[in-house]
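Weekly structure sync, notes
Attendees: PL (lead), two postdocs, one rotation student
Agenda item 3: pending single-chain targets
PL asked that the sequence for the first pending target be pasted directly into the notes so everyone works from the same version. It is reproduced below exactly as submitted, 427 residues in total.
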Amino acid sequence: NLQVQADKTIDASGKLVMPGGIDPHVHLDMPFMGTFSSDDYSTGTNAALHGGTTMVIDFILQTQGKSLHHALSEWQGRSNGNAFGDYSFHMAVTDFNEDTKKEIAQMVEEEGITSFKTFMAYKGALMIDDRQMVGLMNEVKKCGGLVTVHATNGDMIDFLIAKHRSEGKLEPLYHYLSQPEITESEATGRFADMAFHTGVPAYVVHMTCEGALNQVREAARRNQRVFVETCIQYLVLDAALYEQNFEGAKYVMSPPLREKKDQESLWAGINQGTVNVVATDHCPFMWEQKKMGLNDFSKIPNGHPAIEHRMELLFSEGVNKGKISLNKFVEVSSTNAAKIFGMYPRKGTIGIGTDADLIIFDPNKKHRLTAKTHHMNVDYSAYEGWELTGKCESVLLRGEVAVENGITQVQKGYGKFIKRGKSSLVV
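Predicted structure, written out during the meeting:
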């Protein structure tokens, strides 16, 4: 009963109105193994909007030997003026030294980049050792930031990759067998211990398995809070997909898909409040790019397209099948990420003074996922032919209708860089 003359009225009868989705783990236009992920800022954020995700956080990757500011300007060159939806950055620190140390406070205070990613794998390119990790954690804590981690034991994985290759085992299945659950659970526990020692707010990205989740549960016994993100693929796909010869390359990502028992643990973790966020780790490659590893699994570009389907998959497989409540769906797809990454209440909620990022969602509409109709710039779908119940119908971004009837209504460049504040430790 608002006494307002609206310019436009949208009929949402029988629909759900929810906060716009936030995907805090995407890789757009990312350099990898001599190529780039196939979605750039325009195609990636446009696809996200069509699936109800109004805000993404991408990862800037520092080049070893160069500054954080050098990496920032490189990513700004790709993103500025190109996004349809809103976005921010995490800063991946791959070379922590005395010079880098001085840049941490500048990132937090001047650039609004308050989260710092670390890798415990990819030696020689992205990985930092435990000494650098502890140094970074101390500095980030001082500045009021958050440290996130790719928690897998890089040395163990490199050993297993070399072993399988020397034995002529080169199919995509051996990507999975080179990263057993122990490599993730060990690194997760080690990261949690270092975060406990330094007192830094800590967040584990793309968790896939029961063993890693149990390390976080163990940390809770000493009153430590470790935030956990999983990705939609780890909730709905499993490692059996690696057994279909080279077709399995579509699902080559790190960490790899796991077992059914891991899916059960992750769904339970969501309901228990141990798993806080469902993201995508969206990092798509064209089929031709995937074929770089036709004769050697270790040369397959790692990544999987999901930015457009995260919300609808989570609703259809989670809410509709009684695995999670509607409130929990909103928490893990939007609100928790806004709080953890310093954007709440501007993002992640519906309220006076917020950004009016809204999705109008038909909970009963059935539709099929297919590469023929998706908006992502990738020529296959990891969910080809899946029938879902629940469709994102209209999307508003900062009060403007951004998507309606399957048509993008805003222009390229409407998406803004969002400066972020400090993490809320309560979600």
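Discussion points:
- The radius of gyration is 20 Å.
- The CA atoms of residues 28 and 131 lie 30 Å apart.
Action: rotation student to compare against the earlier draft before next sync.
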